[in-house]
Design brief:
Length: about 425
């Protein structure tokens, strides 16, 4: 399933909102800026220099904007809108504040998932349970419907300031400080062009539906390619590689393929260089172009031996376990639970020996049906107990059965299929 994340540029709206407030200070009720600016470690309870720079504002401007209406109650969005309007908040600033409040990173399942994703190192893959993704999607639809009711149908959902800052830290982590403002401006320009195409493709039906015509898909692909070329022109070769290893489509693909292997940063960069040197480095592609993925899959398969040659014998064994179709889902689950890959190997061994023993019990003609059933039940209970001990609890065994290839546990106690004699011809 394709998941499309649409994110508008927050910085432009903040500049507009601050301009409006500065033109009409009486209606905006701007609190005077603090005598001393907060330190860089502070969150939105005080505006740091880092936050202001990420929004292309001076610290004084950013703090003045933040403090404009922070005293307004925001228990719920409906009341928040009523209170802002009663306080005389300018319409454009009201829209900004309400969207920011709706995208509060501390709220709901979607906020929790986004925090988890953005808190991980750039070379780690984020994988979430289906139930959590469904809950986040339901929250998103409900929030979109409420924003549409309160602010109008043209409103798009924005991510919060804090998540924008975290995204900048991840994506621009390898860009020199003196070039970050230029890179941010370039990315913002291309985001605006991309959003113009996406806004035109939004279906009149339910929120979040985007229907792209072939020519619109081509335009989006062209923008991605041009953005990539402009970044290459702006950065040195090593700077661009540092940017691409964090945010390129090629790096995103590799992250997902190595999720069960749980690579170190050095391992991930080594693998990335091999893959990047042998095929096209694709820009980020939120629409998942099938031809790009097919090319990357094919190249990755051809590089398996070279990948393993760079690893120690122990890590090569881990890589084989994590990429083998028989054990890859188990390796991903173990990694997600923050357990060593040795746990996956022990579980795989337990599965093999248990299934072999179950086959022996089923073949033993000296056993009565009752005895056979009792022995299989005892074998299944023992296997389940050992796996629970390895994973850390029965609830994790349930996850193993759902997502880690553990359905074999449920088949242990099933009776052997009855072999019917062939009918005479």
């Amino acid at each position: 399933m394709k998941r499309i994340f649409l994110v508008l540029s927050l910085a432009g709206n903040l500049v507009l909102a601050y301009t409006l407030a500065r033109q009409d200070p009486a209606s905006a009720r701007i609190a005077p800026p603090p005598a001393t600016l907060p330190g860089p470690s502070q969150s939105l309870s005080g505006t740091s220099a880092e936050q202001a720079a990420a929004l292309n504002l001076t610290p004084v401007e950013a703090e003045a904007l933040r403090r404009s209406f922070t005293g307004i109650s925001h228990v719920d969005l409906r009341t928040y809108v009523q209170n802002l309007r009663a306080a005389g908040c300018p319409p454009d600033l009201l829209r900004l504040l309400v969207r920011a409040q709706a995208a509060d990173p501390s709220a709901g399942t979607s906020g929790r998932l986004q925090r988890e994703r953005l808190s991980k190192p750039y070379w780690k893959y984020s994988e979430f349970p289906k139930e959590a993704l469904e809950a986040a999607n339901a929250e998103f639809k409900a929030q979109r419907a409420l924003l549409k009711e309160l602010l109008g149908p043209e409103e798009m959902y924005e991510q919060s300031v804090e998540n924008t800052l975290r995204q900048n830290r991840i994506e621009l982590g390898g860009v020199p400080e003196d070039k970050r403002a230029h890179v941010r401006a370039l990315l913002r320009d291309y985001d605006e062009l991309t959003n113009e195409i996406i806004q035109q493709a939004i279906a009149p039906g339910g929120p979040g539906r985007v229907i792209l015509l072939p020519e619109e898909t081509e335009r989006l692909a062209y923008l991605q390619e041009q953005k990539w070329k402009d970044l290459q022109a702006l950065l040195t070769t090593s700077e661009f590689e540092d940017y691409a290893v964090r945010s390129s489509g090629t790096a995103n693909f590799l992250r997902s393929q190595l999720s069960g292997f749980n690579p170190s940063e050095a391992e991930f960069r080594s693998f990335y260089r091999l893959l990047a040197s042998s095929t096209t480095v694709f820009p980020p592609d939120p629409f998942g172009t099938p031809s790009n993925y097919a090319q990357l899959y094919g190249q990755l398969n051809q590089l398996q031996s070279q990948f393993m040659a760079q690893l120690s014998p122990e890590r090569a064994a881990d890589y084989k376990l994590a990429t083998d179709p028989q054990t890859s889902s188990l390796a991903r689950l173990v990694t997600q639970l923050e357990l060593p890959l040795s746990a996956a190997r022990t579980i795989a061994t337990t599965q093999t020996t248990t299934q072999q023993r179950a086959a022996e019990i089923r073949r033993d003609s000296s056993l009565t049906p009752e005895t056979r059933t009792a022995q299989l039940a005892s074998l299944a209970a023992d296997a389940r107990g050992r796996i629970s001990s390895i994973l850390g609890g029965d609830s994790r065994v349930a996850l193993y059965e759902q997502r880690g290839g553990g359905n074999w546990l449920n088949t242990l106690t099933r009776p052997s299929p009855t072999v019917r004699p062939a009918l005479p011809r």
